[in-house]
Amino acid sequence: MATIELTKDNFEQTVNDNPMVIIDFWAPWCGPCKGFAPVYEKASDAHPDVVFAKVNTDEEQELAGAFGIRSIPTLMVFREKVILFQQAGALPGSALEQVITQAKTIDMAKVHEDVKDAK
Known about the structure:
The chain is of the alpha/beta class. 45% of the residues lie in helices and 24% in strands.
């Protein structure tokens, strides 16, 4: 599955309507972002059950600001509308696979309980 472009118009719906969404915050001028792009695309092909999305921080400054993106690339993993992982810097393919596997195996009932308790 190809990655989808997220904007402030479709961001919320994409995160709310899909069980797991991985987002790459990037910019066209960013060298590490360009290096990470093929790794990210390969992972998106390997995991058709996960939505892979990209946010161009130059075009979507409001969205990047809302998530406090200070450096790019930044990877963010949402599962059931909860951020499970956020990290700046390009990941090698093996590390990205590890993040995806861990995110898929987390007990979301426990996460939702912890989120509820934290409020």
